[in-house]
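Posting for a labmate who doesn't have an account.
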Amino acid sequence: MTERERAEGRAGIWSGSWVAERLGVELVGDDTLTGLLGLALRRNPKRAHLLVSNVLGKHVPQSPSVVYGHGVALGRRVRDLLGAEAAGDAVVLGYAETATGLGHSVADGLGPAPYLHSTRRPVTGVARAGGFEESHSHATSHLLLPEDPALLAGEGPLVLVDDEFSTGNTVLNTVRALHERFPRKRYVVVALVDMRSPADAGRLDDFAREIGARVDLVTAASGTVRLPEGVLEKGQALVAQYEAHAAEPTREGTIAGAGAGAGAGLGAGNGVGVGVGAHGSGDAAAGPAGGTESATAGPGTGHAPAPEDAAAGVTEPAPDRPGALAQGAVGPGAPVPSPSGSVARVALGWPAGVPDGGRHGFTAAQRERLEGALPGMAGRIAAALPTGARRVLVLGFEELMYAPLRLADALERIVDADVRYSTTTRSPVLAVDDPGYAIRTRLVFPAHDDPADGPGERYAYNVAGAGFDAVVAVVDSAADTPALHAPDGLLARLAAHTPHVLLAVVPSYIPHAPHAPHAPHAPHAPHAPERPSMLPEPLRGPDFSSYAPDEVGWLLQDLSDVTLEAPTEEREEAIQSGGAHYAESLPVEYQPSEQYQELFHAALKTSATRLARAVGAVTEIVLTERSPRPVLVSLARAGTPVGILMRRWARFRHGLDLPHYAVSIVRGRGIDANALRWLAAHHDPADVVFVDGWTGKGAITRELAAALHEFENSDGVTGFDPEIAVLADPGSCVRTYGTRDDFLIPSACLNSTVSGLISRTVLRADLVGPHDFHGAKFYRELAGADLSPAFLDAVSARFPDVTDTVDAQTKELLAADRTPTWEGWAAVERISEEYGIHDVNLVKPGVGETTRVMLRRVPWKVLARAGAGADLDHVRLLAEQRGVPVEEVADLPYTCVGLIHPKFTRGATGADGKAVAL
């Protein structure tokens, strides 16, 4: 039997004909409607009939590629409607429970749009950003619980997705509630089918005029349902009639057939309380990847019948027709077979930090991580399937529709079996074993996710008797409770109707703690208030910096109009006396002489190839060891040119377009916590790779580790890796580097004019509030002297020449022991004592740090390794200009070390320190 025949009962019979004949209901509209929709009955005081979609994957098992394809196609139509620019600013909102997966698929088709779906599951600690009512539903209240309330506060188009557009009330309620708080100019309503009556059709246009916004409608098909007078009462009577038949046991313990065969009674209560607490720990408790862990469904897993309680409510496959539907149905108090199928766990290997769905929001970056992980997860499921399985169902769980849909779609691509997808539901629907009826069978089981509205029945339709060789039940870890594994739970119900049941658990996403253990009742970190201070989007060139806008986004605030510069000697006095922190002011920008500029260009010409090799090597190590799609976060400002070059290498060599940002870190003050909050809201922290130019003694490495630990404790966000990736690691402070040679990196030779015309970062209480990014200045007036693009282009131009060398160098580094020895720190401590400085902060090791001393501080001496060559030409020139002695030292672990004047006063400008006031 083909899937179409299963959906329609048998070829040529519409799966809505049973209801149409008995109630006089007509489906009028596009020719495709009867292929998309069937009809069923439910006990609901507001609407008796149910439109059952054949392509939604909720009630009717369907090919996952068909289900996903319909959503993606609608998303592409929305993209075409909006245009590329507006589509890039759009947010997609889906409706629980039925359209959560459809909405997510629409977001995929639309492009990089973030996705959020409403929910009926309150989450402790997450503030509501809104809510609305669905008037015709059996469960009306919808909550909006975005992790980042700013998700709904933008001005771009809001795309609302539901499975059907019947009266328009739900959409109007949603738009009215959101528009009052977050007004915008455009809304797009998306549905599989538009089934509004003529009277309802004009309401949307009237409403759009009322709120002064444009509202478009995109659907796959349209039509209307013609309902005869008194249809609600007739439908309720028909449901009651079938319930009564279902409640009459025969001597054989089954229900007498009613008409073409009645399904289970709608109101059969089971009287079983829902267990509280996790049964296990989801994937963490499962066996090795690709394997399974035995987990029985409960007592009585043999073939002998066992008495069941009043929750039975299932139909049995006839023993002489495997996979067919029985004529009777099991009712309250009747015995049913105990589970005869096996139940086992399969470890998915769900990617850390990726939400299980859109309940709290789902970003484009999280979508990329999921896409990369899907083939591996599908492979683990395939390996756990029984040999020779011909027909497999991937069964999702209520609002958890998208994750199982994508798993099913990926599985369908790699196995020969006929893969189908559907989900369980809260919606009670009458099951009738007739080819002209959309709901042929139903399984009834108690809720297993400790729902806020208390214990109740849940349902799985068209699963029993459908001939599945295996069912893969996919739940989130909040629903992996004792009730799921109980004798009357979902797993036992499935095991009674299929020989193999696999349980796959997706970790429930906990806002603000994406990598925390996924216990369903774990405490949540405090959530932001409903209207928090919104962090701005990154600054980009040409408005801030001379870099192209796609090269880097600066998580900084622009302080260009504030006077922050002070004479170098005054700054040094204030810093060393404890009267000010070095980050509270800026040095006057060094204006290089013609001779110094010539040295820069000569150094760049000499070192460009060596720089290109180091850039390639460190980028390859990051891609191999850290993340296949890392988020580069440079430590401003020295790390920024390096981050841009790494991004360029990833594009040159691998075609990757990596995100890149620059953030502020201040010695003694830590990293910008607001920048971390922005990064955590937009990317998986596990993908973030912090980038700097070079290491000196490793102070910033230690500063970053301490700051991230503090941030984890304060905000509950884990996953940021404190390991910095650097171009050069002469201090042996990190594992991720391109080289450990201490050589001239030309971007250290100059200040802002080789770093996008951006100043060093500023952190001062009167300028940077608790909800602000750290500050920096953009020196637009220095555009004529800017060498930033020239530096980047000179190094990038050497990429094709060093490809083979980079491959060899990367292979060598990956095989080497790169454990940090902190050799540089030990050398700095020794030098500090030998020269009577007694402060490691005044010892700046390495070519880059020494150059900074010469340009921004009051230097005392320069220690140079004996025999150092051209790498020190610019340092010698600066020393000559400032009257600073250069002392050659044997066995120096660095090419050079700069010493800051140890006891500085305003008059201490001499080279020998004699003017220092003791």
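Reply:
Got it, the structure tokens are right above this. The mean pLDDT is 79.
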